[in-house]
Model the fold of this input.
Amino acid sequence: MSTASARLHEQFDTSRQQLKASKLGMWTFLATEVLLFGALFCVYSYYRFAFPQGFALGSKHTDVVLGTIETAVLLTSSLTMALAIRAIRLAQRRAAVMLLLITAAFGLSFLGIHAGEYVHEWREHLFPGHRFNDSLRAVNGTEMFFTLYYVMTGLHALHVTIGFCVLLVLAVLTWRGRYSPTYFTPVELGGLYWHLVDIVWIFLFPLFYLVSRT
Amino acid sequence: MNDQAANGFDFSIPSATTLAPSIDGLFYALLALSLFATVAIVAAIVYFSVKYRAGSSADRSDAHGARLNIEDIWIAVPLLLFLIVFVWSAVLYARIFTPPPNTTDIFIVGKQWMWKVQHGSGRQEINEVHVPLGVPVRLVMTSQDVIHAFFVPAFRLKQDVLPGRYTALWFQATKAGVYPLECSEYCGTDHARMGGSVVVLSQEDYERWAAQTLPQSGEKTHS
Amino acid sequence: MSNPSVRTLRLYLLVWLALMMLVALTVASAYVKLGSFNLVASLLISAAKTALVMTLYMELRREHGTVIVFAITGFCWLALMIAPTVADIATR
Amino acid sequence: MSSYLSDGVTLRSWLVTSDHKRIAILFSIAITAFFFVGGLAATLIRIELATPQGDVVSADTYNKLFTLHGIVMVWFFLIPSIPTTLGNFLLPIMIGARDLAFPRLNLASFYIYVAGGIFTVACVIAGGVDTGWTFYTPYSTMFSNSYVLLAAAGVFVVGFSSIFTGLNFIVTVHTMRAPGMKWFRLPLFVWAIYSTSIVMVLATPVLAMVLVLIAIERIAGIGFFDPALGGDPILFQHLFWFYSHPAVYIMVLPAMGVVSEIITCFARKKIFGYTFMVYAIAAIGVIGFLVWGHHMFVSGQSMYSGLVFSLLSFLVAVPSAIKVFNWTATLYKGSISFEAPMIYALGFVGLFLIGGLTGLFLAAAAVDVHLTQTYFVVAHFHYIMVGGAVMAYLGGIHYWWPKITGRLYHERIAQIAAALMFFGFNLTFFPQFVLGYLGMPRRYHEYADRFQMLNVLSSSGAVILALAYVAPLLYLTWSLFRGERAPADPWKAKGLEWTIASPPPTHNFAQPPLVSGKPYDYSPEAQ
Done:
């Protein structure tokens, strides 16, 4: 692996300072992502408090098997992402590229499963609006549950898609030897972003699929 | 409408409910606190500006003697004053929001750009609310479309009127008369034209008025 | 060639295993009638998963103190937003 | 002697610059343009309100005017004003750095601001939006038939410019301070911009999401705040004000930083209680997030929430009080001179004091029941935003003008303009306090006859204020070309920015400066 080193931007004095700046910048950005999703979690909390039965009933109509598989897939993709960064640290370029592609594949399969769920839910008239199934609409808050379900998982899926593209780009650049054990900041930042997208799903899964299954 | 001098310098509005004087009391207390603080600070600034202007021969020895205990004083004093004002306001706020048990209820529906009023006796009116004097009245309000706000400056009270739920506003009128009613939450094109008036009648006049079930707009009904 | 700062493969797999077990636990907990404790349990499990991912996969433990504060601030502000909002509807 | 202004004169060198100083100037031009757009809307509003009847513009046009005034002034002038102009220019220099941590992100932030501006201008051309800058539902989602989506898109986009600028400043202050520049040796301006950046970064994402929810509800016809679906319009207000109250601290905190710099320089004295001032800035930033409910005392929010928010609102007033006391104490035993920046700074202290004290009336929930949604609130926030933030912005522009442009402005004219602005401002907004107590509601196109006298006073004040705002545009532009050349330190001020040339070289410092002491080590010469 070529000992590629970062081009030290002129406003920095040392590359250690530049790395610290990128890390701090990324974590600040992740804080804004947490609060972006946070506004939706706040809406969720507000209406779950207002309509406990509606949310419980709505949750029973989500597919818990697919949800669990998706969670396992995303958590495993976090594993492979972390291993990819470890591989780069050990200068194992080929392994790193493989692991990045596996992580991207996991992301893609998550999106696939999720699309499947949406199609299934469309057929079951679980989309809010005039097509929403009337027996569920009778229970206050169920339609609100599904409105939230699509907006929150939709926004999350959008972030998974962005992450997927980022991973592909990183895989190609790693394949070209752009990174080395001494310089792999973009991969690290991509990893941080991917882990955060995973953390958002860690909270989405129980709040939508497991409100109550009894 | 017993309007005061149309646009003279009359800076007072009637105080026509039991709570109005208390709210005014807190208002004028805050006004006094603010006037005192403003005069004190501005006087200090002017005094320092004149005495220590560049080139003046004032004594500037030990200019940086930081007496930090004064810093603690002007943290503690405002904090204490604010807490006192908070408690005073909190008690009043609780009274504003807690109707007494036996109120005369009047139902009000806010709609884009008018107020529809329905009295217990069945009497209805538009943009005018007749209320009895001296007894607690509770307005139970909702909106047919957007958020409005039922605001009577003379009562020092307002309450947003929301679609999809009821909000209440209670008061006990202390002075008969006609007081302007305004919508104070922006609700669209004619938000400014959504006013009306609250007419406070004595108890007997109100009962006699409410008993007549003539529709307010006067066209003959078939009954 | 082992770089001291690099964690052993074993550790990564252990973390992954723990995460899988926590997934199983959270799903299982949903099938037990715990009333309002269901929500608390699922949030605690999710918090545990998040802590695992952040400290080890995102290597927060080895980061400078400032970065840890930045990482936690987002979640604290989220709580600062949700608590009063839900408190409003709860006490209405 | 080459400076950042003379290094590259092509348009391209300006439009794709990554020099924080040039980006600051690009921002200042865009912001000044938007200030006059908002100002024009304000002028039309004041003309309309000179008479009780709605006879100059129709009700619909009036509603679109005050909405445009609100949106443009809040998001396109006040929030970016000091951080993106003075902040961008001075922050790196004040901490001894060559540039911000992410120069390209800084340029991206400018172009995102321009993109947001284009959306907003498109909204005006298409026909305007009439929901008020607060976008309250269900009017904005279900009932308004104006261009709400375009306006929401403009604000959504410009929000990201705010987030990226904030992120850039936070990382810069953390990682790029010169040797010896410890945290408690930072000038208060840097502290103010740092605290503002944290508020920008943590609050703006919630605004972005709320605007998305409005767009979804308006397009899909179903959503979170629609009562028919069990939705609650009050939830929208919670989310909106969770951003919008911290936003008012985004507007005033940088102004506090500027005033601290100006007062210490022209009183030739160290700031009084530096540490308390820093803690006050931090406290305002943090507690500012806990008080949003005081906008909703009569909105249908629960009484207990109202009481808690009222208490917290009183607590957030304490740090502001500390700052006013400390500015006043800084004057003690100083050698005070009254150039234009000092007039603006002292004007700020006076007007911010009145703005803050009237804030107490609104924090007291019982009095707020009467005063909210009336002109008392309009006067309160204009005292803080126009009397405070705009005065401090202009003070800062005058104070650092020699450093930024290498030119001196005409002192006498600037002093007169500042005094005229102070007088015009008070004449415009003080009558509105009385109007508010008398019960004149906000956003009224027509009002009762008894309010006319005070409205005429206010409208006449607005004419003076408009003139006073045009004056700096003229004499500062004139000074750009014909002003005297400025020395490196015309005010004999302390601070790293005064140790380098005016205008500064592109890379600010030949080698990173060594900082040894605390800021503002002025000593009043006992003449």
Remarks:
- Chain A has one domain: 29-209.
- The CA atoms of residues 104 and 167 of chain A lie 6 Å apart.
- Chains A and B do not touch (no CB pair under 8 Å).
- Residues 29-209 of chain A form a domain with the Four Helix Bundle (Hemerythrin (Met), subunit A) fold (CATH 1.20.120.80).
